[in-house]
Amino acid sequence: xxxxxxxxxxxxxxxxxxxxxxxxxxxxxxxxxxxxxxxxxxxxxxxxxxxxxxxxxxxxxxxxxxxxxxxxxxxxxxxxxxxxxxxxxxxxxxxxxxxxxxxxxxxxxxxxxxxxxxxxxxxxxxxxxxxxxxxxxxxxxxxxxxxxxxxxxxxxxxxxxxxxxxxxxxxxxxxxxxxxxxxxxxxxxxx
Length: 191
Prior knowledge:
The protein is α/β, with parallel strands linked by helices and 191 residues long. It has a single domain (2-189), classed as Rossmann fold. Helices cover 28% and strands 35% of the residues. It has helices at 2-11, 32-45, 60-69, 132-143, 162-168, and strands at residues 13-15, 19-21, 53-57, 77-80, 92-99, 104-111, 120-128, 147-157, 173-183, 186-189. The strands form 3 sheets. The protein has a 6-stranded mixed beta sheet, with helices on both faces. It has a two-stranded antiparallel sheet with strand order 1-2. The longest helix is centred in the first third of the chain and has 14 residues, at 32-45. The protein is globular.
């Protein structure tokens, strides 16, 4: 998605050689019109699959998933919680998930009543680095007896191996901007 790449180059700020801050339009201040374009792009890329629900992890993935849901017939959006609240009663699916940006290990949680056996679940998230969040979300889908319809990622840092690891397990991964390197403050995209 060329417009996304342009915004990353113009507004993104690299931090070291492995992190990029895009909080001006994706995950702190949300450009809602642009988010709608991102949702539309995911719908275009996954137009060949049935999507019953969209699954993401709090918090940055929620806005992206909601924007995409419109283009999948307003599919319900379920988000995994990083900490199980005391209001979550009943059975849950859980999976360990290491946060690359926060360097914390979370046990992400989804109430069992929100994902049903046989459903086709599209996973949507903002970033893909090592693939920890996507692997955990796939685990939750599979625990439910549902199917992963695909994984949609806004920005993939391909040099960190997460995308390749997910594809090696047979998952379809669509990324809107794939970064091949981040050196000396410069973002380079995959061809």
